[in-house]
């Protein structure tokens, strides 16, 4: 803890839920305003984020190699992977929608896995960085995560609507893996405490 | 414990930035202005005129819209004379019947249950504040609502509908129902609710109500 301007370094704990500032000397266990447990920093932030990130990373592999949906036409199955669905959109001339799905299902999850990994390294090795830029990166990661659920919602609509006996769309095993990746990385971002980046800066 | 409570009161002369932990004098921007953290740039508060009334009115509208958005057909597709119409719940059930139980549960939570709980909590909290009615669960409701925020994914679902429709348009004619329009209105309202919520003011009001309640007991 080098940053002297930080509230924690000056003896204050900010309630994570309601923002109430409490003096550390009082040793309060819970917030006097909203009763939630008080912690100077998120407990075990780096360990939890790392565990969630690795689980997300390993599930990202099956999410991309297994089919996310099967299009059955007259008894003939046609499995689609995430990438396959995007290529199909491009081939049929739907470039903007193809780009949208490319961003939401491939770019966002993979950049998010890398980004959280970098944040963890930065906090763990106490890199001296421009903490403001890194906090903005954290904010972007935390904001975009949920948009990756786009593919899952789209599949639930397709599975529901395309069900005509001869022609059917069935969700594939990658859907479960992909939904898990999105949720795990959302939890990972939520468990990462960006204030750790600021604690490590010696010039503050 | 008069000694402890005065100490706790003293600490409210300061604030801390939630993302960089800079110790701050509490920012008190005027209505319509924004307060940012000078160090990390985080938006700290943006007070609205009649914040409680606004949240209360939006919650009522959202709560009412929730039902047509869930029970009226959103999109219909016609193939060889057969019509299939989609609801939020029918998508969940279709996944469930395919054996994709985990995915079905995720879709159900993010698009049906969490939005309903979120808007009900918002209605409960703003209603109690509006009528100045103390309730010892207010702080708990407020915490739940803030934690649910990012798991309410209606706007992501709408994007899913758009992509699905673009894919289906190539195959068969589509028909859009009233459910879809109600759904879009619901998204506008929940977005206004979450982005316009003045949580600092709400916590202050909850604290005042609690004190009022303690005096009366
Ligand atoms: Zn800040």
Spell out the blueprint of helices and strands:
The complex is a heterodimer of chains A (204) and B (217).
Chain A: E1 12-14, E2 21-23, H1 45-65, E3 69-73, E4 76-80, H2 82-91, H3 95-124, H4 131-144, H5 150-161, E5 167-171, H6 173-191, H7 195-199
Antiparallel strand pairs in A: 1-2, 3-4, 3-5
Helix pairs in contact in A: 1-3, 1-6, 2-3, 3-4, 3-6
Chain B: H1 2-10, E1 15-16, E2 23-24, E3 35-36, E4 43-45, H2 51-71, E5 75-79, E6 82-86, H3 88-97, H4 101-130, H5 138-148, H6 154-169, E7 174-176, H7 178-196, H8 199-216
Antiparallel strand pairs in B: 1-2, 3-4, 5-6, 5-7
Helix pairs in contact in B: 2-4, 2-7, 3-4, 4-5
The CATH architecture designation of the largest domain in chain A is Up-down Bundle
Overall form of chain B: elongated
- SSE topology string of chain B: HEEEEHEEHHHHEHH
The share of residues in extended strands of chain B comes to 5-15%
| N- and C-termini, Cα separation of chain B | 17 Å
CATH class membership of the largest domain in chain A? Mainly Alpha
What's the rounded overall pLDDT mean of chain A? Answer: 90
CATH class label of the largest domain in chain B: Mainly Alpha
Low-confidence stretches of chain A: none
Q: Which oligomeric form is depicted?
A: heterodimer
Counting DSSP E segments of at least 2 residues, the number of strands of chain B comes to 7
Strand numbers in spatial order across the main sheet of chain B: 6-5-7
Number of helices of chain A: 7
- CA-atom Rg of chain B in angstroms: 22 Å
Number of strands of chain A: 5
Cα-to-Cα separation, first versus last residue of chain A: 11 Å
**Helix count from the secondary structure assignment of chain B:** 8
């Amino acid at each position: 803890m080098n940053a002297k301007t930080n509230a924690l370094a000056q003896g204050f704990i900010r309630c994570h839920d309601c923002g109430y500032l409490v003096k550390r000397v009082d040793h309060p266990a819970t917030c006097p305003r909203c009763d939630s447990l008080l912690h100077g920093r998120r407990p075990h932030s780096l360990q939890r984020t790392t565990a969630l990130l690795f689980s997300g990373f390993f599930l990202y592999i099956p999410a991309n190699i297994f089919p996310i949906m099967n299009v059955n036409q007259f008894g003939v199955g046609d499995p689609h992977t995430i990438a396959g669905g995007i290529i199909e959109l491009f081939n049929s001339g739907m470039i903007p929608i193809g780009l949208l799905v490319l961003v939401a299902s491939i770019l966002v999850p993979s950049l998010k896995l890398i980004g959280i990994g970098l944040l963890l390294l930065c906090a763990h090795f106490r890199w001296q960085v421009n903490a403001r830029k890194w906090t903005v990166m954290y904010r972007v990661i935390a904001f975009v995560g949920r948009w990756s659920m786009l593919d899952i919602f789209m599949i639930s609509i397709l599975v529901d609507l395309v069900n005509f006996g001869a022609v059917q769309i069935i969700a594939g095993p990658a859907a479960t893996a992909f939904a898990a990746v999105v949720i795990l990385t959302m939890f990972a971002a939520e468990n990462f405490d960006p204030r750790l980046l600021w604690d490590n800066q010696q010039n503050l | 414990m008069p000694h402890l409570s005065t100490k706790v009161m003293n600490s409210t002369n300061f604030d801390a930035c939630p993302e960089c932990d800079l110790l701050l004098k509490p920012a008190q921007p005027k209505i319509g202005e924004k307060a940012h953290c000078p160090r990390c740039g985080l938006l700290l508060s943006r007070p609205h005129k009649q914040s409680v009334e606004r949240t209360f009115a939006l919650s009522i509208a959202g709560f009412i819209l929730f039902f047509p958005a869930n029970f009226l057909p959103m999109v219909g597709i016609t193939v060889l004379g057969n019509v299939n119409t989609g609801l939020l719940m029918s998508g969940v059930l279709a996944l469930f019947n395919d054996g994709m139980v985990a995915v079905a549960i995720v879709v159900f939570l993010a698009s049906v249950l969490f939005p309903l709980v979120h808007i009900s909590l918002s209605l409960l909290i703003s209603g109690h504040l509006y009528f100045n009615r103390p309730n010892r669960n207010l702080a708990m409701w407020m915490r739940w609502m803030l934690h649910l925020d990012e798991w309410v994914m209606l706007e992501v679902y709408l994007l899913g509908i758009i992509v699905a429709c673009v894919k289906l348009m190539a195959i068969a004619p589509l028909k859009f129902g009233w459910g879809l329009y109600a759904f879009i209105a619901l998204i506008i309202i929940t977005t206004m609710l979450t982005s316009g919520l003045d949580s600092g003011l709400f916590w202050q009001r909850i604290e005042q109500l609690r004190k009022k309640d303690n005096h009366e007991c």
